[in-house]
# Entry
Amino acid sequence: MLSIFDQGPPTPCPRPFNLAAHVLRHAQSSAEKTALSVLRSDGATDWTYGDLHSAIMGTGSGLLQSGLRAQDIVLMRLGNTVDFPIAYLGAIAVGLVPVPTSSQLTEQETAKIIDDLNPAAILRDPQVACAPHPDQIMLPELARMRSLPPASFAMGDPERLAYVVYTSGTSGKPRAVAHAHRAIWARQMMVDGWYGLKSSDRLCHAGAFNWTYTLGTGLMDPWAIGATALIPEPGTDIRDLPALLKQHRATIFAAAPGVFRKMMQSDTQPGLPDLRHGLCAGEKLSRHLHEKWVQFTGTELYEAYGMSECSTFISSSPSHPARGTALGQPQPGRRIAILGPDGPVPQGQEGTIAVHREDPGLMLTYLNAPDEAAARMQGDWFLTGDQGAMAVDGQITYLGRDDDMMNAGGYRVSPVEVEAALSTHPEITQVGAATVEVKQDSSIIVAFYTGPEELDAADLHAYVSDKLARYKQPRAFVHLPALPTGGNGKLLRRALPAYFKATSE
# Structure
């Protein structure tokens, strides 16, 4: 049997359609129900579905009144506050195309995005770095828009452009991933295929408001089913999360592996009577961390695999737990294959994980590199760049990347981008970047470089601080007499971590 998982096509997306309208479909019938609680140790700030709908649709009115028109691109440079999802959904509701970005990006990085996309406007918190642009709508003005009369949803073709997210490209240039309105329709496959989510749930996500993982799993998916989203206030210490989960009666908890690891540094079991299970995504979950969570909380932890181009599409769930070290299985309605050079490989053999071109969650294209998007197609299949093997029951085991992409706290980072930032240093002759595991379940980005002499690490940190977002910056620097290369003189990035261990011993 070949490594193809196909349980038939998902239910077609309705026409006309609007992503934000789908997310807010329970707003009228559940107007008084709490949609969002921003958690604090001394209480919470609550938003009802009615409040949320008014703020989002008022923001939509204000954006149109500012002169923006359907399909205009708006870059989001907002902080980790509730302003972010309100502006994001407000833009989509009226047919604009928001581009959510991390507040950690530097001015130089945003300048490249502005050149790339030529946005019609920037939604801006003055405390968040951003390159100059003539049309900026500042945070106080955005906040005032919430009280305006509500706009109407801009309904239309579900295939039209809805939003853009940036992901690190293997070439070192971040790629603008263009998604259609139908992307939110595809996320329904996660409700049973990963979350085990019900309208009565209180789902807490530990990520920032302005992280796409939080926007999807932590906010939009709970709202689309009529559940309550819980988000810890910005600056919450990870060690305080168990107490917050207990205090605010969270039934599901979602985070990246690094958050789970830090939460469990205490030897005291928290006692979480309302918690049913945890959800993990962003990077590969180790078996050790999984088992530790089960011991720590007495609940299961369900992992999901995905990417910016298609969100998550392989996962374990309460109804289909992962077997052994497997990720889980494709979600109901997905068409997934494991491909070799000549197509799907036999079950049990290694190949590249691939998604069918007709998956409703698959991106439209890369706005700044359509040829690269086309190059990732093999027949009817989109190649993820990750290796895996499919068992006879459809469960898929993750076997690593087939390139040198790094993972930093749930963000994929291109080593080429890190190397480019350091290669301009006048005393560095060659540089290579790689992820290094410094202790069990804990990895960092390390830069290895050659030059006349070893440079001060603090100076190197300062050098990259205005060139790279913090999550892209190396945490350590290693001076070597020469970097490892192959027979053709090409840098062997996968050989670099061994040099870190050797110099640390």
